[in-house]
Design brief:
mainly alpha; single chain; globular; 78% helix
Amino acid sequence: MKLEKKSIYILITYLIVYLLPSILNSFFKLTHPEIFNIQIVDYLAGACILCYLAFHDMPTNLPEKRRRSVGQNLIWGILGFIFVIVLQTIILRLTVQSGGNASSQNTTDLLSIVKNYPIYALIIIIGAPIMEEIVFRKVLFGNLANLLSFINPKVAQILTALISSGLFALAHSDGHFILYGAIGLWFCWLYHHTGRIQTSMMAHILMNSLVVLPILGL
């Protein structure tokens, strides 16, 4: 029961964090700098709260039954980052060859904000990846697999990996459903393979950093 309750708390907290800036803006008609400042505090605080809920007294779920060492976690985090870049490159090239558009309006908009408001990078590099890994991988993949394990543990993890990756792709709705779905599945595999959500977090943070840091001249 504790696993179910904490999973619900995490999902509710994430929803509040996600909606709070829009709700405040609808009431107070905030300026762009005010909205950005609220989003930064909101996402970083949200990441801290979700980390507390996810790591403090949280029962072990199916992917975490066999945990690799911290050193192996670090290695797989780096390898996972390298592979996800290769995966993105392949999928985007296939998209262009099939007549699609490789550009992402969502990414373009975010990078435009970072260019004019550099501290906003904290959301993309730290806040969003941490929260998304906890919500989509730990809860919607790992914890949900526990709840469905009465079917069959392996079948449950395959099913929840597809569900969480599909929702992850929908959350980034910018026309690249296959790309984000594939990234979501890869991060699920990293989490399952190492038994540590920190692995997919690391790969996700590095992936976003690769896109954002050049905009900051780093």
